[in-house]
Amino acid sequence: MLKLPLGIIISLKPIFYVLGTILVILIVSESIIGYFRHKRYQRKLATQKTLNDLIYKLKPEEFEDYIGILLGKLGYEKVKVIGGVHRADGGFDVRAEKNGQTYYVQVKKYGRKRPVHVQEVREFYGALTADHPDAKGIFITTSYFTYRFFYTAEVFAKKVGIELIDGKKLVEMMETANASNVKI
Question: For the whole model, what pTM was predicted?
Answer without folding.
Answer: 0.69
